[in-house]
């Protein structure tokens, strides 16, 4: 176990995604906060710094693309993982241009996201070392 | 006289006209268009591909119900749209192949998809076909919106866990709606609630008005008649309980709704109204207001169960609220009815039991029990003092405690959350389950003492990141490997099942298993489906599992993280228990399971049955099964097909095995260098046909001794046409294989048996299937059924899922790698040869084992792989 826990924020307007991701990531040793409203999540990132952000793209109000830009602006080393049900090549390309760590199409396997998060964590720890 | 002459003339005229009329009709009738072969061929191939894609989608959504995937509502609606589009295309293709003879299929599709789509739009669908009253033992489990939460949980305890629950029935939410409608209450209730919300009336007034109008309402005749049908059988008393929609989920409504005990059959309608009215008691109304539920529709089903005259009753908490972190459960018990315990008015016995085996009783508090509640003769209840001498006696024996602990653990394992269980013991000593619901425990109630990841890191890991998740969850128990029927029957409750293959005969032990690990099989296979039905955490495709785990070794299987730990990781089990809600209980999963019920089950098994029609298709699977069968028939009806279609090339197979096999190659099935229409077995490139042929042509298969006819005679009987036999239709006279490089559809008529093999062998296992159907024979039905039974035996040993209906055998196997598919096709080839002689030789049921044995000895290439 690492000395300090990495913090993860999950944002998805469908509550089931949050409810299922939280325990799956906690069991890997992360501290997890979840949000279904992008505005609330936006407030939260002003106050807390997250190592990893997992966000949906298409949401009411502030969409995921804008949210991740804000997050990156606020804390550039945050690794962002995009999860979306509208997986097109264009959105994938656009999110990579915005510095996204990885892009996962919904529905996805728990093991898939766990793997990507582990990779992101390795990168963060490597950079911090 | 004149009339008579006229009449005669008229008749003559009719006689004369008849042929003309027929000719006229024939000319008028649109001639079936003869489509060019490439077009038909393309349609057929598209249809096969669509069929395959739908099969895969069905498997896919089945897998999604296992919890390994994270999906949302959008996925469900996208999925349904894709499926609908594919199905429409398949119906179009079939109608093109069959010159528009199946137009009814469009209506069938509407019947299947309209409710699916309505449901996805979020409407609470209670269709007109749903019953007013339904027996507790045949409750539709995926419709808690019909029977309410409490009944649903009991239905699951009966149907999935086999626990004894007092018999009874549910007056459904459809009946509740009918009641409101018949008494014109909907509008009025709404108006009263509005004026309460607006502050024009107080809570008491509102509640009184609504309750009074319900109590004075008339139970609609149709509903009352169905209730009477349930109660008329015997003169007994009933417990009448609320089972409101949404109750027992995340919201408990604990104690807010009425229960009427010991109600005689004659008074059940008034008890029904009283329980309905309790939906609008002041307590219930203010609770719903507090929870922000007033805007939503309240609805109540009512559960009626035979009264148990209990000598002892009580409650179990599978989590000890005074020591949430301790791994133990608590049983509360007292004499008489359970009310004494539930209402907490008197001191009761308390037993604290360890949740881990061997379930030691850790604490025993025997209270002085002053009084008890019991049924009053003629209805109602009474409170009587407990005789002085019995007050200090324990109300439960250790044996009864043992049974209750077993039930409690299996209920908690199934519902995935700590349970509050009501139980009773009748005067004969028999125990009954009365109710099981969630204990409302949040992560805050049981704060983890330490980070879960740190705790699990201390346990040794046996395997990590291996296998495919068939059902997500955490289970723990001793390893139990099943490699024989005898071991199967001794499977202990709560053990972890470890097996090589996921064969259908393992089904009976699934509900008892704490978790399942298999070496082979797919998440879409039969065992995986059963595991999901019973919510058993299951990992399939774990290489070498049977060597990795020792019998009796305690392990903890976490299929959400794909980790298996040595030992019992009790902190992890505890952690899982307090996550809200269990994914199985979320709206999305329930919706998925309801979709699945309309999509995946196959009801149309026998194509010769009178109900093999578009009207009888109940599911998507039925529809594609019907389309596939009819499309293949179009091609099988070769003479007509050839007349309709120009430019089709049919090969004839020349071989020592004189089957007279014709081959229609859709592409890649036959060596392209062949000129002419005669091919030899070595020219076959279609993988499945090649594998099957290897079995058919293997030495000994066609000359198996003893066959009491000379070779010539036998061969003539083999290739005999079947035109005179009942049920025979168009495709008599020869055998036909429709093939491609990886596909085979074979109709084989041997003597009097009809074999059908439909198989696909793709490099990727999830695209693969074998479907085998065997029917016919001229002997009496007893012998034919005996043969069917023998085939079923053999096939299930080779891990086929087998259905037998009289003399019809249907066997399926899915998603094995190509080499294993090939091995099974070879077995089928053997079997096809083997079955020819069975009618004659299989004289009694006692012959079956001997035949089984002889089949294994002669033709068992998969024997070393199959452990049975």
Explain what this protein looks like in three dimensions.
- The complex is a heterodimer of chains A (129) and B (868).
- Chain A has 129 residues and is of the alpha/beta class.
- Helix content of chain A is 47%, strand content 21%.
- Chain A is built from 5 helices and 6 strands, in the order βαβαβαβαββα.
- In chain A, strands 2-1-3-4-5 form a 5-stranded parallel β-sheet, with helices on both faces.
- Chain B has 868 residues and is of the alpha+beta class.
- In chain B, α7 runs antiparallel to α8.
- The model of chain B is unreliable at 1-14, 704-732 and 861-868 (pLDDT under 50).
- Classes of the chains: A alpha/beta (129), B alpha+beta (868).
- The interface between A and B is medium-sized, with 25 and 33 residues.
- β6 (108-109) of chain A pairs antiparallel with β1 (69-70) of chain B.
What's the average pLDDT of chain B? Answer: 82
Secondary structure category of chain B: alpha+beta
Number of helices of chain A: 5
Distance between the termini of chain B: 88 Å
Averaged pLDDT of chain A, please? 89
- Helix amount of chain A: 40-55%
Radius of gyration of chain A: 13 Å
Biggest sheet statistics of chain B: 9 strands, mixed
Instruction: Give the spatial strand order of the biggest sheet of chain A.
Output: 2-1-3-4-5
Oligomeric form: heterodimer
Span of the ends, CA to CA of chain A: 15 Å
Number of strands of chain B: 31
Shape of chain B: globular
Across the major sheet of chain B, the strand order is 25-23-24-26-27-28-29-31-30
- Strand percent estimate of chain A: 15-25%
Give the largest interface: A-B, 25 and 33 residues
User: What's the SSE pattern of chain A?
Assistant: EHEHEHEHEEH
Taking Cα atoms only, what radius of gyration of chain B do you get, to the nearest Å?
A: 33 Å
Largest sheet of chain A: 5 strands, parallel
Sheet/helix structural class of chain A: alpha/beta
């Amino acid at each position: 176990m690492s000395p300090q826990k990495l913090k993860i924020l999950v944002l998805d307007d469908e509550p089931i995604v949050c409810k299922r991701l939280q325990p799956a990531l906690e069991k890997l040793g992360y501290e997890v906060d979840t949000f279904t409203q992008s505005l609330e999540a936006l407030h939260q990132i002003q106050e807390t710094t997250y190592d990893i952000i997992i966000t949906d793209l298409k949401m009411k109000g502030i969409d995921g693309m804008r949210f991740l830009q804000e997050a990156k602006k606020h804390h550039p080393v945050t690794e962002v993982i995009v999860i979306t049900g509208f997986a097109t090549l264009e959105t994938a390309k656009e999110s990579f241009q915005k510095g996204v760590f990885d892009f996962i199409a919904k529905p996805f396997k728990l093991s898939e996201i766990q793997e990507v998060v582990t990779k992101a964590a390795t990168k963060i720890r490597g950079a911090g070392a | 006289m004149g009339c008579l002459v006229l009449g005669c003339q008229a008749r003559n005229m009719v006689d004369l006209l008849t042929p003309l009329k027929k000719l006229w009709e024939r000319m008028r009738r649109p001639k079936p268009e003869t489509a060019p072969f490439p077009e038909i061929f393309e349609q057929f191939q598209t249809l096969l591909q669509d069929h395959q894609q739908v099969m895969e989608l069905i498997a896919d959504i089945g897998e999604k119900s296992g919890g390994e995937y994270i999906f949302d509502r959008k996925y469900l609606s996208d999925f349904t749209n894709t499926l609908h589009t594919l199905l429409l295309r398949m119906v179009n293709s079939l109608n093109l192949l069959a010159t528009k003879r199946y137009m009814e299929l469009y209506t069938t599709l509407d019947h299947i998809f309209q409710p699916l789509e309505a449901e996805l739009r979020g409407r609470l669908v209670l269709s007109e076909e749903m019953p007013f009253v339904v027996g507790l033992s045949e409750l539709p489990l995926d419709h808690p919106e019909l029977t309410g939460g409490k009944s649903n949980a009991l239905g699951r305890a009966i149907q999935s866990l086999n626990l004894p629950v007092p018999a009874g029935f549910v007056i459904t939410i459809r009946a509740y709606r009918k009641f409101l409608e018949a008494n014109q209450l909907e509008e009025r209730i709404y108006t009263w609630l509005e004026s309460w919300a607006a502050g024009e009336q107080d809570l008491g007034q509102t509640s009184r008005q609504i309750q009074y109008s319900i109590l004075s309402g008339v139970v609609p005749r149709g509903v009352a008649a169905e209730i009477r049908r349930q109660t008329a059988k015997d003169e007994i008393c009933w417990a009448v309980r609320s089972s409101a929609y949404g109750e027992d989920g995340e919201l408990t409504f604990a104690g807010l709704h009425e229960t009427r005990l010991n109600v005689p059959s004659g008074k059940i309608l008034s008890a029904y109204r009283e329980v309905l009215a309790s939906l609008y008691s002041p307590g219930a109304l203010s609770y719903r207001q507090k929870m922000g539920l007033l805007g939503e529709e309240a609805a109540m089903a009512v559960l009626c169960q035979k009264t148990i005259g209990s000598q002892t009753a009580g409650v179990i908490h599978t989590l000890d609220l005074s020591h949430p972190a301790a791994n133990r459960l608590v049983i509360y018990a007292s004499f008489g009815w359970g009310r004494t315990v539930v209402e907490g008015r008197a001191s009761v016995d308390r037993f604290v039991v360890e949740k881990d085996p061997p379930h030691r009783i850790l604490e025993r508090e025997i209270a002085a029990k002053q009084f008890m509640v019991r049924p009053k003769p003629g209805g109602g209840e009474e409170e009587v003092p407990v005789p002085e001498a019995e007050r200090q006696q324990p109300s439960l024996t250790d044996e009864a405690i043992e049974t209750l602990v077993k039930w409690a653990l299996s209920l908690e394992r199934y519902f995935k959350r700590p349970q509050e269980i009501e139980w009773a013991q009748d005067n004969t000593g028999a125990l009954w389950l009365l109710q099981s619901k969630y204990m409302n425990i949040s992560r805050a109630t049981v704060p983890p003492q330490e980070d879960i990841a740190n705790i699990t890191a201390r346990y040794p890991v046996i395997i990590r990141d291996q296998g495919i998740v068939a059902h997500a969850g955490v289970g723990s128990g001793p390893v139990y490997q099943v490699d024989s029927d005898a071991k199967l029957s001794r499977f202990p409750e709560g053990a972890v099942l470890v097996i090589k293959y996921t064969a259908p005969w393992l089904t009976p032990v699934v509900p008892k298993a704490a978790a399942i690990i298999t070496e082979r099989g797919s998440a879409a296979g039969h065992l995986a489906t059963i595991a999901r039905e019973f919510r058993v955490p299951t990992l399939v495709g774990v290489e070498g599992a049977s060597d990795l785990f020792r019998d009796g070794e305690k392990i903890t299987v976490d299929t959400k993280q794909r980790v298996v730990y040595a030992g019992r990781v009790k902190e992890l089990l505890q952690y899982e228990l307090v996550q809200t809600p269990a994914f199985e209980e979320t709206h999305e999963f329930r919706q998925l399971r309801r979709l699945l019920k309309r999509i995946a089950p196959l009801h149309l098994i026998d194509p010769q049955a009178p109900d093999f029609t578009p009207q009888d298709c109940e599911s998507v699977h039925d529809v594609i099964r019907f389309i596939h069968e009819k499309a293949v028939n179009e091609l099988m009806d070769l003479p007509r097909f050839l007349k309709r279609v120009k430019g089709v090339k049919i090969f004839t197979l020349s071989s020592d095995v004189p089957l007279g096999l014709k081959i229609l190659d859709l592409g890649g099935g036959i060596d392209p260098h062949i000129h002419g229409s005669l091919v030899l077995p070595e020219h076959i490139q279609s993988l499945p046909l090649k594998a099957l042929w290897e079995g058919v042509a293997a030495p000994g298969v066609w000359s198996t001794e003893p066959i009491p006819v000379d070779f010539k005679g036998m061969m003539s009987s083999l290739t005999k046409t079947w035109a005179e036999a009942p049920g025979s239709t168009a495709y008599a006279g020869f055998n036909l294989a429709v093939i491609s490089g990886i596909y085979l559809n074979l109709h084989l008529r041997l003597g009097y048996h009809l074999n059908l093999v439909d198989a696909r062998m793709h490099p990727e296992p999830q695209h693969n299937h074998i479907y085998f159907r065997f029917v016919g024979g001229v002997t009496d039905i007893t012998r034919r059924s005996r043969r069917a039974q023998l085939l079923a035996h053999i096939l299930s040993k080779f891990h086929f899922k087998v259905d037998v209906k009289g003399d019809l055998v249907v066997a399926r196997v899915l998603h094995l790698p190509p080499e294993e598919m090939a091995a099974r096709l070879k077995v089928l080839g053997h079997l096809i040869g083997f079955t020819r002689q069975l009618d004659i030789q299989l004289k009694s049921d006692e012959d079956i084992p001997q035949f089984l044995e002889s089949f294994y000895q002669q033709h068992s290439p998969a024997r070393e792989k199959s452990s049975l």
